[in-house]
Amino acid sequence: MTTAVVTGLGVLAPNGMGVEECWAATLAGKTGIRPISGFDASRYSVTVAGELAGFHAVDRVPRGLIVQTDKWTQHGLVCAENALADAAVDPAALGEYEMAVVTASSSGGNEFGQREIQRLWEKGPEFVGAYQSIAWFYAATTGQVSIRHGMRGPCGVVATEQAGGLDAIGQARRLLRAGTPVIVTGGTDASLCPYGLVAQTATGRMSTRADPDRAYLPFDADACGHVVGEGGAIAVVEDHAAAVDRGAPHHYGEIAGYAATFDPPPGSPRPPGLRRAALAALEDAGVTPGEVDVVFADAAGTPALDRDEAAAIAAVFGPEGVPVTAPKTMTGRLLAGGAALDVAFALLAIRDSVVPPTVGVRRPGADYHLDLVLDEPREARVRIALVLARGHGGFNSAMVVRQCGTD
Amino acid sequence: MFTLDSLRRIMDATGVADDGVDLGGDIGATEFTDLGFDSLAMLEIQARVKQELGISFPEDSATLLLRPDDLVAYVNSNLVEVV
């Protein structure tokens, strides 16, 4: 039996470019949520977001790839490159069928698609660029990473909105068990353009507050919806023994358990599926609730969904039974990138024995019975973390990550 | 008259060429794929030629017009017919 471990990480987040910069900012409680600056959002109901304001593709992506890709794919290319470097994996030295790419995508290439659709209606079909055919597509990030690094193993993409980061890593673990030695996995997103933003406001779950510090307050009595952000995380996943054999510089942690469930249809008397996903992931890992040191919450930020999640956590761990945190209060929900970034945070929490904080929450809902880690990081031995994620449309996923060599 | 320089300008405008590729060099007899222009890049070039000159390309042109010289000759032969 293989043991899936993360040996490399690449991160781009609104509060920090790169793993260490983002992690330091997150421990310091520094938010990346600000008024939208990339386009004029003043006419829209939603005016704040977690933008990757410092990201300039020309500095980070080969010129010929920029015209072929949406910025979500450019973020993925940068994160993948950094994750491979962090893992000290040289793709050119490995067989091309020994490596695979699995990423999450929530809505494909929004900004690229908007630009081409504008050309279509302003000038006509012959003015739509040839690269629209591949750049908008959900699998574009997986494909471009695969082409760039010569990875021709069983590649794929999962489209389960904010649950996607966990589902991609879960699929990577399956591929590892089926015999692919190195998998590049995770997710990024970049939905911040007028088309991408307006499409999401239709869910009715986005915060319309203009104050960036008060817009996204999951588990707060004042919760009023969520904020979205750009970026995400990519991980390199390998078998633990193989990583030890090749002298991999980092063993961030083991992907010890994973499960996914689907919610019953609206109006059904059956309960939502998050609790079932959490329990199944713990069972998959062979871990009891009492062994879990921290839960990274999905933190939807709308009262009904917060209530459901708090109930699920309390049902599994008991009232105030486990530290719970939502560092995404500093980035916004990164959609396809969100859960992958939470897994990166969980692995760094294990490495540094510290739980990153949740910011902005002043009045946690008293009947939620959560031990929320608020405002300041909490020093604690973190051996096992549970990451929860829910995707719009009924997706629930849970992942257990564990310190290497402690199972 | 459509020249190799005309094509160079269009190729550059697609933004497809990586920094390591010198479109100003002696590229006429080099295959497009060796210059970093794949089949989608060829569609992009053909679309731009059509926008500028009104010349259409047959569907199999990507396998017939393999080099910049081939494409320049094709465009000029069709320009003559128009005249």
User: What can be said about the biggest beta sheet of chain A?
Assistant: 12 strands, mixed
Question: Fraction of residues of chain A in helices?
Answer: 25-40%
What structural category arises from helix and sheet content of chain B? mainly alpha
The biggest sheet of chain B amounts to: none
Number of helices of chain B: 4
How many angstroms does the end-to-end distance of chain A come to? 14 Å
Task: Write up this protein.
The complex is a heterodimer of chains A (407) and B (83). By secondary structure, chain A is α/β, with parallel strands linked by helices. Chain A has helices at 19-27, 57-60, 63-66, 71-87, 110-122, 132-135, 140-149, 164-177, 194-201, 240-245, 274-285, 303-317, 338-352; strands at residues 4-13, 16-17, 34-35, 48-49, 99-104, 156-158, 182-189, 231-239, 253-262, 294-296, 323-325, 354-355, 371-372, 378-379, 384-391, 395-402. In chain A, 58% of the residues are buried. The model of chain A has no long low-confidence stretch (mean pLDDT 96). Chain B is an all-alpha fold and 83 residues long. In chain B, 54% of the residues lie in helices and 0% in strands. Chain B has helices at residues 4-14, 39-53, 61-64, 68-82. Chain B is globular. Chain B starts with a helix and ends with a helix. The model of chain B has no long low-confidence stretch (mean pLDDT 89). The interface between A and B is medium-sized, with 13 and 15 residues.
